[in-house]
Amino acid sequence: MPKRILLIEDDKEISQLIESHLKQENYEVFVALDGEEAESFIDKEEFDLVLLDLMLPKVNGMDVLKQIRERSVVPVVIISAKGSDLDKALGLGFGADDYLSKPFSMIELTARVQAAIRRATQYIRTDHQPTEDRIHYKDLTLDLRTFSVQVRGQSVTLTSKEFHILKLFLTYQSRVFTKEQIYQFVWQDDYYGNENVINVHIRRLREKIEEDPSNPQFIRTVWGIGYKLGG
Length: 231
Prior knowledge:
Number of helices: 8
Order of helices and strands: EHEHEHEHEHEEEEHEHHEE
Strand order of the largest sheet: 2-1-3-4-5
Radius of gyration: 19 Å
Number of strands: 12
Distance between the termini: 29 Å
């Protein structure tokens, strides 16, 4: 099956050029010419990657990105003429995976698209959605009714944030989450480089559930990317 790409670009000439090129590379491409049309696609369809311009009519690109991140961890590559360091930082901070400044070559675009999809398929496989009130992983059990956790048969007391971080990992047992994504899912707020907040919560959570917090078996670090459950 060809990978499905949502292209959100209001410049018709640029969107037609990108669409034509990606179709030649055997991608299935859907085109939105403004933010409202993009949000409609996001509500109804599933994609393997989103190419997002920031300067959009009706609904701006940052708001579209925030809507995407409220419901999905699909890789998002920003394509924008706004190439300042601040714009890049804001885009990546809101949950984008990559940033490509206009003008760019189709060769570079293809390489970025391939890399983003490869990372997603390598680190974000299939979701393990809980169908019952308890989620299990090895000798760890999380009870969604009582907000309680048991590790190796022993009850563990977690704070609300620690519980929801652990729930995130157990719900999506094959995914790697960046610190930005953890913050957005658990705190449900914009991420402005609050890296230390995540580090502290992960450390405290490890101290409570790991036999050896310095050699964690439940929440592992994926260097340069973020954290994931298990091996």
